[in-house]
Amino acid sequence: MSHEGLLDDLQTALARRDEDAIQEACARLNPVDIADFLCEQEAIGQGDLAVRLILSMSVTRRAEIFGRLSEPAQRSLASQLPPETLAELVAAMPHDERADLFNVLDESARHDVLKRLAHTEREDLRHLASYKEGTAGAIMTSDYASLPASITVAEAIGVLRNTAPDKETIYQCYVVNGNHYLLGTLSLRDLILAPASSSIDDLMVRDMVTATVDTSQEAVTRKIARYDLLALPITDDGGRLVGIVTYDDAMDVAEAEATEDIHKSATVGKLRRPIGQAGLGVLYRSRISWLVMLVFANILTGAGITHFEETIAAHLSLLFFMPLLIASAGNAGAQASTLMVRGMATGEVVGRDWLRLLGKEILVAGALGITMAVAVMVIGVARTGFDIAMVVAMTMVIVVLMGSLVGLTLPFILDKLDIDPATSSVPLITTVADVGGVVVYFSIATAVLGL
Amino acid sequence: MSHEGLLDDLQTALARRDEDAIQEACARLNPVDIADFLCEQEAIGQGDLAVRLILSMSVTRRAEIFGRLSEPAQRSLASQLPPETLAELVAAMPHDERADLFNVLDESARHDVLKRLAHTEREDLRHLASYKEGTAGAIMTSDYASLPASITVAEAIGVLRNTAPDKETIYQCYVVNGNHYLLGTLSLRDLILAPASSSIDDLMVRDMVTATVDTSQEAVTRKIARYDLLALPITDDGGRLVGIVTYDDAMDVAEAEATEDIHKSATVGKLRRPIGQAGLGVLYRSRISWLVMLVFANILTGAGITHFEETIAAHLSLLFFMPLLIASAGNAGAQASTLMVRGMATGEVVGRDWLRLLGKEILVAGALGITMAVAVMVIGVARTGFDIAMVVAMTMVIVVLMGSLVGLTLPFILDKLDIDPATSSVPLITTVADVGGVVVYFSIATAVLGL
User: CBS domain location, by residue (chains A, B) (predicted)?
Assistant: First the structure.
């Protein structure tokens, strides 16, 4: 049966309070699909039904599912669970997910959970929950597999076999000394292939890719993707291993980062829920501030036009070409800016590339501008005669160059100012290009055609 | 030493033709960094140096690196290798990467390679290389670990130990019957935890996530990310296992897809090389067609303005607010369109959500429009008096609603027409909003203010 079919069964079973059928559907569904179902129920105000489903599961199953819920769903559903059940759930969750959940809880729920946990669990949770959002520390997990360097392959496989159920992954192992200083890494594949009596010390890889707890999540994700890692070891400043970030968490970060960058490119603020589940107020707030700011920025364009009112009154046909010229500047700028912002996000373009890319952009934008000038010249001559057509063509080359250079340069300037270059959004570039386009167009027109 | 330091050493060693130093630097560098170095050398016209470096490596090392080169670098460097070396290289590469390389080679090089391969290798290569670009078949690999259902855990571990060096991953195993029909999956972790005498048949997971060779790469990537898979099994239409797609290839696909979507959002066409390495001609071609198309589209806006020339001549101060109104329509539209396009790309929004989202968007855009109308009303009264301010405020509400609804709807229409919704780019939405904005603004102005 497809998972849609199973979800329908689950819904029916819940409505009928048929515990056996609930168990049966839950057992066959993937935890990911159950988590999605719970989020939907919570979003449409059926939180009590979601809580009933959670309580009917085993602790293990519950722990698998809870970390996959959206933050608002976690907060809402956790507040409806009895304190003992919540503490039991937290204890059973993977270390990174329970730290995230902990950060979502309110003060009194945190207190309830902490006092019910064993001492080492409590310390581990406090520690993981203390890292700043956006850093490697905040997404790493402390349930990794570590090995001493002095044992043999056979002994190491024994260690892994005994500890496997508690570890996020055993496919990549980390070799540490008595002070937990990271010495090397070893894959389970290499362990299985090696003779049973070889020593870990001889076998481990010493040239490793690592990051520290303060490394940004984007940089961690880029390393995992670039070097095809299953997990990236995270050390403190002293080189001691404190956690790992696994590839699946990196994929989630990469998707969230891409979404945030894409939203920023259209001046949409950060959304914590998927668009389908986000409330009206959240959507309004994520969009209004930039829109109002751009209204005020566009007054400059209006003022530019008003400044040239006499020229316009004398040659009203100039208005025909105005939208086309300022849109072209904005469009070319949007292209250049988007290419740069994405290049910087993927790490392909860095600050010192600016001059080289500027040279390239002048040539490309020049060629684009000339092509577009030719296209517009044809229309211009047919419609308004040679004089205005010449003004329009000259303006086109200049504004396309100008828009492109602004689009190319703004992301670098923002990056230097420690502002995310993705803030150099298409609407912002378009607004800048509008002002410049109007001034250039009517200045040339005034000079060539007179008043 | 950092990898930049090692790369400098390598460069010096190559210039001096010091084979020992070349070997030493190569051994310590990550294959990914060597591949990047080779791509750069090729891009700056130092292909002979790159070829020299490749020839000085062992076949294994060469095979590790070659699949990570960009397509143009692969094509150029492969054409400079002796035919026997190229065939030897192809034979040593992972199955998916060699199929990609094969597709990059010219006809005669393909022929040279094929005649030097063993029969089964040749068939496998032909088979993998025959799948359509963009499908699961084109990115899957045939070197997966498979097990019969009838053996025990101890026997299975023996099988994996013997075949591990040839397999892309042994952490996820696939249980097949005599006809290679996929029966279930089994992780190495579960194998290692299970008693040695249990049977694979009892242990394997039968409820699996799978895809077929025709599934799109985006859908494959979404499944791997959603269900946190190490690899996704790919079957033919008959349910026979023919390959797997691993998480690291899925991460590459996801990044390439995100880049393509982001570029499309600013009307930039597909680039096969990173922006820093792309040539002038490629960059020009990726940008010119949409720019010229939008020039012609913007003529409509110009025609709109010209149509209302009399109204404008009578009330020149209307021009002051024109940029602001049409930009606001475009900006609100850009936000709505970007939210929808990204939601569709991540699978969060599907076609049947349109009506529900439309209702939400009308409320949100209405609130946005009213807020912006209030902001602009204040400026309007101060600058031009109550009448024009009223016209401007009314226009603002209408054009923001209009822009938002166009931005929301266009992606759904394009999707229905089987065009990538990402084509609903910000510049396109802006252009549509410009035309509509001009017509609405001057129509209201003509009605309220007269001629």
Answer: 140-203, 204-260
